[in-house]
Amino acid sequence: MSNLLSRYLQTTLPAARAELVALPQTPDIELFLLNADFPQHALSRDEMMAVMAEPSYWAFCWASGQVLAKFLLDNPEWVKGKRVLDFGSGSGVVAIAAAKAGAAKVLACDIDPVALKATEINTQHNQVAVTLFEDFYAIDETIDLIIVADVLYDRENLPWLGRFLERADQVLVADSRVKDFDYPNYRLIDRREGTTVPDLDEFDEFRDVRIYCGERHQGEKP
Predict the structure, then answer these.
(1) In what order do the strands lie in the sheet with 83-87?
(2) 117: burial class by Cβ within 10 Å (0-12, 13-18, 19+)?
(3) Count H helices, E strands: the chain?
(4) What share of the chain in percent tops pLDDT 70?
(5) What is the DSSP string of 65-95?
(6) Which of 156, 166, 199 is nearest to 85 (CA)?
(7) Does domain 63-215 have CATH number 3.40.50.150?
(8) pTM of the shown model
């Protein structure tokens, strides 16, 4: 499994490889991620251009993803017995946490086919079942809760917050990028510190992860 993901990485970063990592905040979850000793600050111009053209977001467990996974494992009532969709699944960490926390069914959606393959491999390694979709609009199943981490780095993605509430009664969003988050029917419910794995030595502000709950019908925590 790691060999396949390593080959995907090496199409843009020949010296990279995928290695199995137990996450610091959720050590019961292991993911295949970019090797921690990869020389991130010594990329050639061609490598930088290749990375920008085809970024491998799935090769990192971003701070917000790890924090939201930990939140679900600490508070399984948010997902227990529910049909849950992980939007922008990346490595699959939040989908894995939802399954481990007792969701009735977990779906994962990502527009990057390689990310979906990474999610598939990581969920299999963690011995949980997740149904994969490349197109959000192709999902015709009932969804009780949508979980989202690290998709608001581009403010053009903000309209998705409204689309999520058209699809599910509740949404959980984890984010460390938007400092002035103020969107109708969303409220702050938790705030935790997190780090990206492998460590990108990010600014402290990007380690400050906030979790928001969106509700189609305003109400209390389940």
Answers:
(1) 131-133, 105-109, 83-87, 145-149, 170-175, 208-215, 186-193
(2) middle
(3) 6, 9
(4) 89
(5) HHHHHHHHHH-GGGTBTSEEEEES-TTSHHH
(6) 166
(7) yes
(8) 0.90
Mean pLDDT score across all residues of the chain: 89
Predicted confidence at residue 206, as pLDDT, reads 82
Residue with tokens 């050590």: 27
Q: Where are the domains of the chain?
A: 2-59, 63-215
* 123 in Cβ contact with 92 (< 8 Å): yes
- Residue 163: both structure tokens together: 């689309």
* Token pair of 119 as six digits: 């999610």
Sequence length of the chain is: 222
Q: Measure the CA–CA gap between 118 and 108, rounded to whole angstroms.
A: 11
Which residue is associated with the tokens 């390689």? Answer: 114
